[in-house]
Amino acid sequence: MSDPFSSSVLRVEQPRRGPFARSQYKVLDGDGTLLAVADQSNTPVRAERLQTYFPGKSELHARAVLLTTPDGAPLLVVDKEAGRLLTTVLRADGELVGTFRTERVGRRYSIRGGDETTLGEIAVDLGRNNFTVTDADGSRVGHVRKKWAGLATHLLTTADKYSVEINDPVPEPLRTMVVTTAIAMDLTLHESKDIT
To answer: Which of 16, 32, 64, 90 is the most buried (most CB within 10 A)?
Structure first.
């Protein structure tokens, strides 16, 4: 199977839905061609029970999304653990691609490979809208930008739009981690649209 994320320019979009909606994303190339869709995989029973009493989403809740091709073939799983410390990226067969580990909440994240080697780092601006991805040597390999959609959209819906630029060539597994940065950072920093 060819790599659906071979483009150096990608867009990651969430549909405009209410704050209690499941985490969903569309991944498109720079021309707007749909490459993949992501939907929140099964919510653990305990989390469902808690959300019955405290509805909505929080960046503290554990959440995982499954990325598939538009016709449903599984590609990757982005799995954010409870809290803000660890997000794991897995291939569809369960092979660990790497992890995003919090170094400073909202400001800096390390990117590690499946064998725990340091692949790079994500530096986040003060507004949490620009994410600069560097490799282990500090060279810039990508940039993710969250687009401002207006106050009402930001506060009342899950709609977020990201642009992803990859400074190819970027070796694997770092390239896959750059591709998934927008989803990982959205789950970690921007999914909280309400009081929970």
So the answer is: 64
pLDDT in the model for residue 159: 67
> Over the chain, what is the mean pLDDT?
82
What per-residue confidence (pLDDT) applies to 194?
A: 37
In this structure, what token pair is assigned to residue 53?
Answer: 């009493």
Mean pLDDT over 35-58 rounds to 57
A 10 A CB-CB count for 151 gives 8
CATH number of 9-190: 2.40.160.200
Give backbone dihedrals phi and psi of 161, rounded to 5 degrees, phi first: -130, 135
User: Who wins on pLDDT, 3 or 135?
Assistant: 135
Q: How far is CA 166 from CA 1, 43, 131, 139, 142, in A?
A: 21, 32, 12, 12, 4
- In whole angstroms, how far apart are CA 51 and each of 48, 138, 178, 183? 5, 41, 31, 22
Contact in structure between 39 and 66 (CB atoms under 8 Å):
yes
Cα 105 off chain centre by: 15
Which of 90, 94, 85, 110 has the alpha carbon at shortest distance from 187? 85
**CA dist list (Å): 111 to 12, 62, 69, 120:** 20, 19, 25, 5
Instruction: Find the DSSP H helices in 85-136.
Output: none
Neighbouring C-alpha atoms within 13 Å toward the C-beta of 169: 2
Q: Which residues make beta-bridge pairs with 13?
A: 26, 161
Euclidean distance between CA atoms 123 and 137, whole angstroms: 14
Nearest alpha carbon to residue 100 among 110, 90, 108 = 110
